[in-house]
Amino acid sequence: MRKRILIVHPPGVPSGCVQEAMDKEEIAPTWLTDSTQTMRAALEQMPALVLFDVPLWQPELEEILVALGSLKRTRSIRKIVLAATARLEDKVTALDAGADDFLLKPISARELTARLKAVLRNYEAVSFEEEKQSLGALDLYREGMEVAIGDQRQKLSPTEFNLLAYFMERPGHVLSREELLENLWLPCKEIEDRRVVDVYIWRLREKIEEDPSKPRRLLTRRGEGYALIDPEG
Fold it and tell me: 69 or 216: which carries more pLDDT confidence?
């Protein structure tokens, strides 16, 4: 994992698992104790990944995540939040703001290293080269992260965009919650993390279905998962 990494943490010693992971991989990351300087540091150093090592989720982190994703120069930077405690709502907020994963402490250095590598690897897996991808009347635009049905365009969050892109690359295939977690948010064993998928499925339905309660495109296959189809195909 020879990537440039920026680690943002409160003043004092960073989490032991973070320091151990960096030492084992022989990485010399940039340590930043002032989160308000994250954008400046990111623009100057252009790291591959920013790791937020914090005691708990804080509202200002949402602003930083959104800012990193809004600039073309920093849009490709991967972002992970590592917190000691968090609610489901905090995780959803972080993912919606552009975080690629939300991890809870305690976590071993070995698992943390694996997740860091997977985030960098999975970014390539869920992105595609075309400016537009289509499935029937449904169009997904990479530039601007928008979805359109006919003339109606709607903005997507980074997580919504990645999720819909993953479905559109596999039209008609039934994708389980476990597969979506593994390929988009990494393996999560907590029941709350499984519910994150359901939250985003509903959000996508609100944007691509005439009636989200009676979906015709993003279907539920009871006991199996979800599938994206062309209802006119």
Answer: 216
